[in-house]
């Protein structure tokens, strides 16, 4: 039994079907791509509109306007477009900075530091694993005042760690939160 070669009519039909499926797939991919582009544009416009409403015009900083005017004078862009773009971008940036400043975590007060991390002399600590402050990289002297973190027992010059704790609530070495050990230390 010899296999007969496929008839030319059957082979042409298969190629036409295959080409039609490729064409349909290509059209589908193009439509999905266009849909994604339109969706991206819509989302971008909504974000821009939201940002414009978030930054109120009354918060406009006069210094920002002066900077925008200076850039406008030294630019090849059309005047109105450049000014509008610069002021708008600076309003957004200024609003964002104000937003961050309002929500910034404040550090610890000096009174709280004295209660939670009392000053001790380096000599009174006895043998420690650290012989230098990792903040200033200076060595410890026997009569220097230091603070010891209650959780990790890391030692620092009191002035170095006080400056650090004004902006951070963690140990500079291991990043343990000071508040975790303070409640323990205050109850003992």
From TrEMBL:
Q: Enumerate the Pfam families for this protein.
A: zf-RING_2
Catalysed reaction equations from the record: S-ubiquitinyl-[E2 ubiquitin-conjugating enzyme]-L-cysteine + [acceptor protein]-L-lysine = [E2 ubiquitin-conjugating enzyme]-L-cysteine + N(6)-ubiquitinyl-[acceptor protein]-L-lysine
- TM spans (from-to): 23-43
Q: Where in the cell is it found?
A: Membrane
Is the keyword Transferase in the record?
yes
A GO cellular-component term linked to this record = membrane
Q: Which GO terms describe its molecular function?
A: ubiquitin protein ligase activity; zinc ion binding
Keywords for the protein's UniProt record, in alphabetical order: Membrane, Metal-binding, Transferase, Transmembrane, Transmembrane helix, Ubl conjugation pathway, Zinc, Zinc-finger
The record's section on SMART domains has: RING (SM00184)
Query: Which E.C. number(s) belong to this protein?
Result: 2.3.2.27
Q: List, alphabetically, the SUPFAM superfamilies matched.
A: RING/U-box
Q: Which pathway or pathways does this protein act in?
A: Protein modification; protein ubiquitination
RING-type domain sequence ranges: 133-175
Lipid bilayer topology: Single-pass membrane protein
Q: Predominant location of this chain?
A: membrane
Matches recorded under InterPro entries = Znf_RING, Znf_RING/FYVE/PHD
Top-rank EC class of the record's enzyme: transferase
Q: Which family does it belong to?
A: Belongs to the RING-type zinc finger family. ATL subfamily.
Q: Which PANTHER family match?
A: E3 UBIQUITIN-PROTEIN LIGASE RNF13-LIKE, RING-H2 FINGER PROTEIN ATL47-RELATED
What is this protein's record name? RING-type E3 ubiquitin transferase
